[in-house]
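Course exercise 7: structure representation. Students receive a sequence record and must write out the corresponding structure in token form. The form below is the worked example handed out in class, using TetR family transcriptional regulator (198 residues). Read each field label carefully; the graders check that inputs and outputs are placed in the correct fields and that the protein name is recorded exactly as given.

STUDENT ID: A-19
EXERCISE PROTEIN: TetR family transcriptional regulator
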Amino acid sequence: MSRDERRERILAAAARVFAASGYDASGMREVATAAGISTPVLYDHFPSKARLYAGLLESEVDSLLAGWDALPPSGTAEELLRGRVAAIFAWMETNERGWRMIFAETPSDPAVAEVHRRGQARATGQLTGVFAQVPGLALSADLPRDRANEALAEAAKSALNAIATWWWSNRDIPREQVVALTTDLLWRGLGNLIQEDT
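STUDENT ANSWER:
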């Protein structure tokens, strides 16, 4: 087995272990056993549990955000928002490991928490781009549009994170209903800001 092949086996095993137990409760020995290698070989590839988890977390954030690029253009601001919300929750439903890593737990390790923070900042950046596509907002706040877009994106992300975390413990609710609920929450506020002539 080549070094790259062994690394891929380690990542796949680590993903299973972290998904089953979470970051704090998982150990490098457990990952090594799942990968069918010795613990020293694991440390040869990844010098710490934090580095191993951070690599997986970055990969999951890449996967989540990459799906947005494939979405078709939207005719209205509501379709734009609904499409993005639907894509996020569809990704969660088919990627439980990423769902848990991004939304359901924030590891206590400072190095991993920093990777988590950077992933959240990337998500805010993506959502800011969504708000920038809305042609006009009737804001009562006297803010430059780019700053308003960023603030609205941060608020939308917080709402999405909260509902994603709630859904983790309420799997009996169908995804379509979670999308509808989230869109209602976000659109009822945003919809009132859309200028009539746009």
